[in-house]
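Reader question, answered in our methods column.
A reader sent in the components of a multi-part assembly and asked whether the whole thing could be modeled at once rather than chain by chain. We filled in our standard form and ran it. Here is what they sent:
COMPLEX SIZE: three components
ENTRIES:
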Amino acid sequence: MVILPGDLYECKVITGTALLWRSAMRYALQRRWQTVLNILGITVGVMMVVAVDLANNSAREAFDKSLELLSGQITHQISGGSNGLPDALFSRVKTELGLQKAAPSLRGQVRVNGQELTLLGIDVISEAAMQRSRPGLPDQVFAVTGNFIAAVGSDSSVVMEESLAQSLGLSQGDTFSLRTMNGSHDAELVAVFQSQDEAATGNLILADIAAAQTLLDRPDRLDSIDLTLDDTAVAQLRSWLPANLMLVEVQGRNDNLQQMSEAFHINLLAMSLLSLLVAGLLIYNTVTLSIIQRQQTLGIFRAQGVTRQQVFTLVILENAALGFIASVLGVVAGFLLGRFLVTMVTATVDNLYFELPVTTFFVDPRVLVKGLGLGMLLSIASSLLPAMRAALSRPVTLQHQAAVNSEWQKRLHLLAVPGILLLIGGRVMLMPEYGSLVTGFVALTLMVFGFCLLVPGLLYLLLQLLLMISQRWIGLSGVMALRNASSAINRTGLAVAALCVAVSVTVGVGVMVGSFRGTVIVWLEQSLPGDLQLTATSADTLQEGFPVELLDELARTDGVEGLYFSVLQDVESEFGPLRLGVNAIPALEKFYLKEATDTGLSDFDTGQGIFISEPLAYLEKIELEDSINLLTENGLRPFTVKGIFFDYTSGIGMVQMHDSLYERYWASQAPTRLTLEIKRSNDEESVQTAVREILSTYGSGFSLVSNRQLREITLQIFDRTFAITNVLRFLAILVAFIGVVSTLMALQLERLREFAILRATGMTPWQVSALILKQTAVLGFCAGVLALPLGLMMSEVLIDVINRRSFGWSMQHFLPESVLIEGFLLALVAALLGGVYPAWRAAKILPAMALREE
Amino acid sequence: MNKRFFLISLLLLVACSNGEEEKITQRLSAADVLASGNVEGFLRASEARRFEFPQDHAAHPGFRNEWWYFTGNVETPAGRRFGYQVTFFSSAIRPEADNSCLENNAWCTNTIWMGHAAISDISTEKHMAAEIFSRQEPGLAGARLDPFRVWINDWQLFSTGNDFPWELEVITDEFALSLSLAAEKSPVLQGSNGLSQKTPEAGNASYYYSITRIETRGQIYLDGQRHEVSGTSWLDREWSTSALGEDQTGWDWFSLQLDDGKEVMYYQLRDTNGNAHPSSGGNLTSLMGTQSAITPQQMRLEEQAFWQAPDGKQYTTGWHMVFQENDWLIQAVFEDQLMDVTFQYWEGAVEILDTSSGTVVGRGYLEMVR
Amino acid sequence: MNQQDKQHNSIQPFIRLDQISHTYAQGSVQHRVLEKVSLHISKSEKVALLGRSGSGKSTLLNLISGIDLPEQGSVTLNGRNISALNETQRTLFRRRHIGFIYQFFNLVPSLTALENVALILELNGMGSASAREKSMALLSRLKVADKAASFPSRLSGGEQQRIAIARALVHSPEIVLADEPTGNLDAKTGEDVLQVLHDILNESNSSLLLVTHSLAVARTASRVLTLENGAISERDGDFAW
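And here is the structure of the entire assembly that came back:
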């Protein structure tokens, strides 16, 4: 039924149908628990979308601000990889080239009073010439309170925002201890300033380059030189710049970085939308249910001359009103939840892409409006079909319920056919190997939707099957429970489908994360060669490498089988910065290879080529025997890709090469890492103790970590990265939970009269309660059973398509039984909970009801 | 003696306002800064000293402020005239750089440099100004003797040896200049044998010498065109750790080069009412380089024409100067020669006219701080 | 049916209501429906209770079956004071000793005809197979055996009521309470159903309390009472069966 514009005058009759409204309102009030649950369902759905949206936006904002803070408003950067560049270059850029808009930058993570902060070393005088504003910092450097300048040229003075100083318990003039990876230094807080943007500066310690070099133990180095250049200056600088340095175009790099993390945001958004789909199904279901419950009332209305348009409008407006209340609540709740989520989202971005010195909770009012609109739209859209159905109510006083039921069962195949088509369609959409992420999600949604349409039919078949199998030994009350569940499919089908989707999300994501974790564990076992890692950490040891005597001593230590030098550094490439790993361990022993050329392993060991990580290969579409350009000490040089290895450390790509190859292009770099192999026969603990003892005589410039510890740390980081996923899983379940409880409750309350008969017939209150719980348990059981294939299908798509397209990771499939059992139990518990209140009510029901007039 | 002093004071204010939370606006009035400045720990110009050249052309660490201040009038063979100003200011944040810091870190510095450069294109009445800021270390700016070099990034004044002739090179976005400078007279010690008292308070003085006539030859680059120029420049050198008195709010400073070979330097401090302050004075250098002081009592200065800057401040572009036997009209070559940089002041080329005949008898530079 | 030999037991009435008063609340309005009513029904006695709609007939049935408890007075069934039993005890008592027949049949829609009948036997602890067997026998007796596998929604009113009668009698209750059993049936079907009920009751030893507003239906009982203004009075006349 469609309302034509010409019919709209009918709607005006609403003013004359106050009684219709009163009837609707009383209905809602009578079933206030159901009404509250309906509202709650939409609320949680909207909350989730709003919260994720806010968290995503905040993370993006933090990303933007971080980039702006660290490299904003500049066109280019001179970058020299992980060791940075010699600071003398800066003086030459300014005095020889006369580039005024050039500023040095050096940064690192520090810890003050247990708080993790970013130390940013700048030259305020150069900053003034750059005329760039950084978020939170006063526009003009000279406009900062006086002692900011006092920090210039001192090697221990720092400056920070006032509220940060307060939170650290510091005031101007205080000297405090500042810890870095390599030790600690005393710093003096010479000035505080008031921030225009606390989010941007709240984790920031500012210092002069001199102080930053000292405090971070990086004498004579800069991370980058920031530049604002016009085209002629670019050309001039390019030809002037030493070959081992690279002039990077900043916008392009930042865009790149942002695009990579965008995949992660799309993932979160998709998950929140999936939960909204669940909410939508549930709204549709509850509205339909309320129409069925009121069929008779509506029929009477119709008999008395209420028009179809009026009935339609009544239902739509009623749900729009509920949707409005729910959405407002959802937006508020989403706002609160968003605050919490943003820290988790930011943590993930930190781990995967880019250490963000900025954390912010950025509230874009559009997000709130969007959430409100989405909730309303969902409520209205989900009530369209039921409203039409209500409008089509025949003006008769009695509808025979059985007729409705059987009609439904006949129509089950009408749902199944489009369901199967959607499933197939989704599957086909997933075929192309390099499809887009968004298509991946659309396909996934189609498949989920298709499966939903199949659920009522499958549920029916499943219940029939159960009945057939168990009829003999479950007794009549068991039979009754199964038959009741089956006859109510028109009311429960979609609730079960929604529960199914929600549970399958947990199962799917759980299996995906489990597989991922399992893969990472396998990968860690195979790609961390040796047993102990010794790393140079102080400025001296980084520069000088390992003393020969130390190496001697280590080699002579009982239990040490082998020593391998290694390097881990950032390297510039045509694709932006990459991690470069180097050592002399044979390729066979250290790689978890995805693919390699026939001679790949020996080519690697003889320095004929390099191996690259899978994400790099996937995202940049690099194939075996392709070459990629890396910035060496002699400038950009091509390296041939001989193999692709699995890597899960970072969203950014990684390159591995053999020591011999590295030496050819990075002759001046001393190795900064040492891998120790321990003899099988020896106890790792005792060897570690012996090594520590030796190290203690060589000062504090080395750190020793066992591979076992490294694996643990990696897994910890992994778990932190996926914490957000678990929250979203939980919320999706919550939505379904509320919806299912609401639906089952309504369904059972509707049958109270029937329970009264049973009570009159001689069932005890407990028997009636048990009957209800059996019934809902059966539905939960079925939802659980159906959710498993859907969940597994989802996990396949997540693992093989979504993750690949998002991050370029491929992983093995692991099937953690616990996830399956959890999912199944979740469905069962949700359904059982839906039966608790009706069971309680039914137990208290007076059998006398059976005798009352119809 | 007090000239340009405020510019450096501004930097110092920033350095020394001791954590007061008020924000300092970008464009400050001189009055806001005159009384401030921490002098503790710095050397002070409290007594006469012996000047030695060329050593004194280089930096004098220990004092808070120092500058190399060039002004000049030049023209092309075809007679197109330009005025120019190039200044290197240095200002110390702390009395001296921490030695342990200096040993460990090339960036340790206690000195910040500021450069100003301007060209007055007299034929088009266009004034262009540029500024540059830099810390001293690592090698970004400085002043050293052997070979002589004063530089802020790529702006530099240098010599192959340690004395004249000097080369002055400045490149800005709008213009560039490259000038060879040859002193025509010996340094003139200003004030009392080079000790220029600012207020009666002891130590509130500067060491101040000038080279009042420098033959200048070179190129000015403007709008993509190169102009061969020649003319005469003036150098002021001053170092001090001093502050203005509380009743002093600005000044007028004249450097005049007469066609007959004389030079006149005269400054007049202005009090809070805009009147001449008693601590004013000047110096007359004869053709042969002999000097005689000009006291405020000998000098009569009348303001005749005015120009209002966009910020509302009023500058005097026409003066009537009478002292000893001289009766001159001093007129700006054009009105708007405002230094539109971080710290604003008016600094521009002037012509000296004989009042009675109206003929041009010399050229010079005028600085006004309000 | 196992008590066929016991014809009359007039010494101790099987159902005994003493000075019952009861109020029926409808919303905030209290209806005093029974006022010091006393009633004695002997074992296997067939009693009809006549009364207008709303006169408290249903309430009386609820009190007798232990579904409700009287506010004042006592209900004694087979010598046991119902008021002294708790809810579960009353429920157990009900399902062992009482059979119900309703105006609207009240069959459980999700159970077949046979299952509806067998339910109470199962509730009383009988095994599934024997419960079905026994139920089936009764359905045959009521001539609805062919409908045994049908769900209530597929049955006519008369058929439904026959099933309901089977359900009320299958566990051989001492008393059958029938609330307008023909009220929702057409005249002919009503007569048939009533006939079947009496036929079977005559074979068993069960008492019957038949609540109706129809004199014709009431006449089928051996004793007719009227409930009016909260009080019961014996009706004159000989209603021989």
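What stands out: The longest strand of chain B covers residues 205-222. Residues 1-36 of chain B have pLDDT under 50 and may be disordered.
Send us your own complexes using the same form.
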